[in-house]
Queue: 2 jobs
Job 1
Amino acid sequence: MKKIILLLALFIYTTSYSQNAKEISREWTSFTQSLSIESKTKKKFKIEASVKVISDEKQAWAGLWARVDNKNKETGFFDNMRDRPIKSNDWQTYTIEGTIDENSKTLNLGGLCLYNGKFFFDDFELFIENDKGVLEVVKVFNGDFEKKVENGTIPRWSQGVSKEKNVKVKEFDVTSTTDKVEGKLALLIEGKGIVYKEAYKINPMEDVSPQIGTLIAMLENLKDRVENQVKNMTQYELDYLHDEKANRIGSLIMHLAAAEKYYQVYTFENREFNEEEKKIWQVPLDLDQGGRDELRGHDAQYYLDIFNEVRAKTIAELKKRDDVWLTEVHEDSNMNNFFGWFHVMEHQSSHLGQILFLKKRIPPEPEVKLEQSIKN
């Protein structure tokens, strides 16, 4: 105990459990253990662990990760092995080396994995340089994972990237396994049902004309960006109103669907909304006060289902057309179809920026205070 006190002015492990974790959806997951650290001098640290990956997907990989959070709330050292992903199906030991200094506040360490497959972790070890310049072993609680996972909870570890943001990712199952390096158990995380999308490539599609295929790929990329930002938001977050002139994020998703619906009828059918369509789409298309008053009270999936239904119609109709159709001009507006769908994309990009702005300004949800019970 004295060695640790000499090594660091403050060294307190803080752990969190997964029972109260927020359930989210995404293509990766992680687990972490956090410790508070203070040092008057710059010190090296090293993390070692054994990992193996069993997957048929080339994009699946695992890694160790470490992040130092500084006292000024900035991130210090960070490494998640993205530049050297773990894909071997044999147990091997991997290492991360970093530094802490007088500005360091918290060291976070753990493992991560992406996409479908089985990801195995065992024998986490932490070493921190002491005053003599020697890397000294510091205990990682349940670093050998001998304490069995129960109900998706990893004893003494949090799921997520910090103890404050404890999450459960729906696409990953977390269990114990007897396929281990030492001892009796290791940690197994299995990813299932994740659809891989090329986030940084725009390619034409098969069986459609080149420009149409590229247009569809660009539209889908933008929709994915919107969906990734909002799919894990709570109803409170979607309904939050920044000020009397702002829009709720939920209403903005509906607005994107309404604008795309309008350009469907305009470009595919060469007309405006009819009266029945106005009853459904005019309020989200206009937003303003009507949108602020009416478009709320739903979860993220409600809005995304509507957006995805509209998009499916767009793709089906675009596939019926060719590149020549894109150049056709509407006499009433002097706009060709290509510009119309370019505008749909720039419109979505613009409101994505608005969503990002609003998302960062949502205050924590107020706690519900129960009334004091009536005494007899």
Job 2
Amino acid sequence: MKILYAIQGTGNGHVSRAREIVPLLQQHGEVDLLISGTQVDVKLAQEIKYNFHGFSFIFGKKGGVDHYKTWKNMNLFQFKKDMDSIPLRDYNLILNDFEPISAWACRMQGIESVSLSHQASFKSKNVPRPKTIDWGKLILSRYAPTTHHIGFHFDRYDDFIYTPVIRSEIRQLNKSNLGHYTVYLPAIDDKDLVNVLKEIPQVRWEVFSKHTKTAYQDANVFVEPINNEKFNQSMASCEGLFTGGGFEGPAEALHLGKKLLVAPMRFQYEQQCNAFALKQFGLPVIWGSDKNWIPKLKEFVNHPQEHVFNFPDETAEIIAHTVNTFAR
């Protein structure tokens, strides 16, 4: 059996999940990997057969998407050329983690594909969403269209939705609490973050930033470039995680039993929905309308959180079910 697994390369969550899924897929057949996008810091161990420019949302430094750089980064001619270059009919199963090139290529050729992603969960009307009009709804539904859907979310909102894929390296971490707070906000400049976090001087903040190449310390704030191993260790031993409105990072923190505060990116509908879902569980959110972060940061640091999330390790069963159900 030949399997094509296409992965979105914007952000680290998709590739982090793929690191867990690829070895399981390889137990069922020969797996070719396709990645498109330009904003990933985490790497796969396996060879990438197709590496495309794709269509990435470019993170800004002020808490949202940089629309100008995102538009400038688009190349529709190359997108169509890459679509035509994939030998889709060579594969018995095509899996898609929110990757647009293979998804649209399948759609144009009438070939079935299966979304295996957090975004697939939004096909259910039961998934929490804020009551807002947002052009991001259209992007979420049209960005990477597939014929079948298997989704992941914080809760089982529907019969095709499972709880998050927690990487083995996270499940195997030795948890502790050294009292510091881990921070990952890729759409905010670390220097701006430092200025805010210094206003809460009683704790140590460990910031991991896309926007610096060297580590430095400013008062009680310690800044590091993105490093998967160091980040995992920091999160395993922290009191809490302060991060964006992504999916995998908050899910891993909740699995580890850590306190959680999220600040979803502005102009990013999926992150707004994730934050809204977390709010339903009683977890704190800093919204784009919150101009002064200090009160919520103080509350986050000074008050305990009581939550218990059960994210069972069922990835192998999900992959086996997917292969047995959809392979042709």
